[in-house]
Design brief:
With about 350 residues, the chain is of the alpha/beta class. The protein has a single domain, classed as 4-Layer Sandwich (Purple Acid Phosphatase, chain A, domain 2). It is built from 9 helices and 19 strands. β5, α5 and β6 form a beta-alpha-beta unit.
Length: about 350
């Protein structure tokens, strides 16, 4: 009788686990410097106020932090010109409050204020309990993958950039971000996948302000999937680029902006998408992808859910952009525009 009860309980647990889903929310570029930093200093505005419900409705939320958190407001004023994206340390609390569990700092603006700014940014994120990856005191630290476990699933995160014009690539003994080659990122994926059930690769790449994809993006994205990545999340172009369903795995070439200033409506830099990827926790299969279009217009810079008309525009952009890599639009099998 005891044996029968154990068997029944085991079957029940297995069925429950199979039905359970693990959700991952991913966002576009988060830039909190320049005029956004000035707005915080003057008004204490929360950039994530209007989208908090979307960000928090997940097991893990991932963003691309395209600035440093290294400005001490008692010593420094916001930098309003150029591309030094150094923001107030206090943004750490807002990122935590917005339910960001993980942030990549592998991009071309994460070290606004100099390569040593990485130390302060890491200190702030560690203090908030936010997992970060893609940058560090040296190359080994910058390349290191991080793991977050939810619902019995070990989700690995690996962050890298192929664009470093305004920041510092980490060296063997110098701080910075992880600038990869096509060869090195594949080696990193193979190693990281040994220790996790799902592996998410966040990569900074591509051309800015265009739907056009480079040959490297398409080739490398597919290669990363083939070698063990379960999702590839691209950023940097500041506009929505295409999505692709490849071998049952999801590729995002760019999600556009989440928070940014100096926006251009005609160039579509005022538009972005928040995605929720849902995986079956037992099989680790991707079941659905929900897309939440946003417009950066609240207080000029901050995202709000798109209205009916704006949603149609962004949906058309997603379709047009996705046809470049996914000609048959296989993504529509699992993509739902919310």
């Amino acid at each position: 009788m005891k044996i029968l009860c154990v068997v029944i309980l085991t079957i029940f647990i297995a069925l429950y686990s199979a039905a359970e889903e693990l959700s991952l929310v991913v966002t576009g570029d988060i830039m909190l410097g320049r005029y956004i930093d000035l707005d915080y200093e003057q008004n204490k505005s929360d950039p994530f106020e209007k989208i908090s419900a979307i960000l928090s409705n997940s097991d893990i939320t991932l963003g691309n932090l395209e600035c440093s958190l290294a400005r001490d407001p008692k010593k420094l004023k916001p930098v309003l010109t150029g591309y030094v994206f150094r923001s107030d340390e206090a943004y750490g609390k807002l990122l935590k409050g917005a339910k960001f569990d993980s942030l990549t700092i592998a991009n071309n603006h994460a070290l606004g204020g100099g390569n040593t700014a990485v130390f302060k940014t890491i200190e702030v994120l560690d203090g908030m309990g936010i997992v970060h990856f893609g940058g560090g005191a040296n190359l080994a630290e910058a390349k290191k993958y991080k793991i977050i476990e939810r619902k019995g699933v070990r989700v690995g995160f690996l962050g890298t950039t192929m664009e470093c014009p305004d920041t510092y690539p980490a060296g063997e003994n110098s701080p910075g971000v992880y600038k990869c080659s096509e060869v090195s990122i594949i080696e990193d994926i193979k190693e990281a996948k040994k220790y996790c059930d799902l592996l998410v690769v966040s990569i900074h790449w591509g051309k800015e302000k265009t739907l056009e994809l480079t040959p490297v993006q398409i080739r490398l994205a597919r290669k990363m999937i083939e070698e063990g990545a379960d999702a590839v999340i691209g950023n940097h172009p500041h506009v929505i680029q295409g999505f692709e369903l490849y071998k049952g795995k999801f590729i995002v070439y760019s999600l556009g902006n989440l928070v940014f200033d100096n926006l251009n409506k005609s160039a579509n830099t005022d538009k972005g998408v928040i995605l929720r990827l849902s995986y079956e926790s037992l099989s680790k299969e991707l079941k659905t992808v929900e897309a939440y279009p946003v417009i950066l217009k609240y207080k000029k810079f901050y995202p709000v859910p798109a209205d009916k008309t704006e949603k149609k525009v962004i949906s058309a952009l997603i379709t047009e952009a996705s046809k470049i890599a996914d000609k048959n639009l296989n993504i529509m099998k699992i993509l739902v525009i919310k």
